[in-house]
Design a protein that fits this description.
The chain is of the alpha/beta class. About 45% of the residues lie in helices and about 15% in strands. The protein has helices at about 20-25, 30-40, 65-70, 75-90, 100-115, 125-140, 160, 170, 190-195, 220-230, 255-260, 285-290, 310-325, 325-350, 370-385, 390-400, 425-445, 450-460; strands at about 45-50, 50-55, 60, 120-125, 145-150, 180-185, 200-205, 235-240, 265, 280-285, 350-360, 360-365, 405, 405-410, 410-415. It has a 7-stranded mixed beta sheet, with helices on both faces. Strand 1 and strand 2 (about 50-55) form a beta hairpin. The longest helix has 22 residues, at about 325-350. Bound molecules: pyridoxal-5'-phosphate. Pyridoxal-5'-phosphate (PLP) binds near residues 131, 242 and 243.
Amino acid sequence: MLFQPSSAAHTIPTDAVPGEEDYSKHVNPKWTKLLSIIGIKRNFVRCEGINLIDSEGEVYRDFLSGYGVYNIGHHHPKLIASLTDELQRLGPTMLQSHIPELAAELAKKLTRLVGGGLTRTFFTSTGSEGVESSIKFARAYTKRDGILYSNGGFHGLTYGALSLMSNPWWKKGFGSMLPNTTGVPFGDLKSLENELRSKKYAAFITEPVQGESGIQVPTVEFMSEAQRLCRKYGTLFVLDEVQTGIYRTGKFIAAHHYDVEPDMVILAKAMSGGLVPVGALLMREDISDAVYSSVEKAFVHASTFGENSLGMRTALTVLEIAEEEGLAERATVLGERFRKGINEIAERSQFIKESRGLGLMNGIEFMAPQSLKLKVLHAGFRKVHPGLLGQMIVKTLFENSHILTQMCGHTYDVVKAVPPLVASEEDIDHYIEAIASLSEIMENTNAGFWSQGLKIGLRAVAG
Ligand SMILES: Cc1ncc(COP(=O)(O)O)c(C=O)c1O
């Protein structure tokens, strides 16, 4: 996290939102403090489509989507109706002693959408659980222990998933990680083959587009060669599509851009419609059979909430909505519009380097300016904290243009644009215009951007 205020006592600021005091007392005081410091704390009372409405009636556009859960937008009316209907049926929800019909329907549908012969599904409630499960299935199938991963990735904060993340910030202070896990540079086939050659790895687990490290889109060659090499050395090729899945990048899963057929695919986030947590790990039949190898082992890997009917109904409805509303195409068209608009600004901006991404998973990279005065200012702020400039950008977009976004994890130079796929052309253009005016005020040392930043810095230091 960006700032770690030092004071242990939690003082309640005057602009406190409902629940803040108890949240600080009983959940996480540092979180309330952080939101206050970066100035994006609001009392949101209603969320619809891409819009977040606060108690003052101010409307903010959500370009973060809860880190990728709101692909169909907030509170889609069809999803609300479908969940209401499901609740009123009073059917079995999680008996653990029956055959859940909706799980069967959803697994069949996911098999068709993912393709590549991944005919078996293990249902989860979170993305991390999908990653953990993939490690177990891969180990059981290959009888190998090691797991390879791409440096710079994000896979979740449980021990197995955390062990597959190279950034030490997430791991420091939490003791030893899962043994036999090794990272290789994302996109580096030579390093990948050097490790695979040892034949000690059960799986190579990677995102097809990395978010945390600043929206890194690999080449087609890397993805297809990575798959070929995994096959050659008997290592399973596992794609973490927790964030890229469910049409985020313009295809059902990002793997479809690369024409690869992974051995396992992990989904979660947007399957939930932002309402009911649900995830899935898809795999080949022989991989599933390695775990469920006998009747006695029929439940050797299981999860209490995994196949619950509300989660299943939610995901089925999300998929229906996505198909009916052509969200794959929307993500493609709007994504291209976004990158074109931002890259035009980049041509004349001292601060904006480029926009990159796939579909509606995009980032904007900022850079050090050329002019001496701005360069000195930029360097000074980076020195206070490498993330300060990013938070100033986030705060300015929030306050001036009512856009909610964030930086890409700890890649402080890249700001995210991950709106619901139901966003309109006007929403996209609004973000582009906001970046154009941000670029202008960043270049004007008298426009208040830099003095505002100083205030954030001082508040962070003061705790
Ligand atoms: C690519 C990826 N994998 C896994 C996860 C972990 O998912 P969850 O937070 O649902 O456990 C995330 C969460 O941001 C993610 O982005």
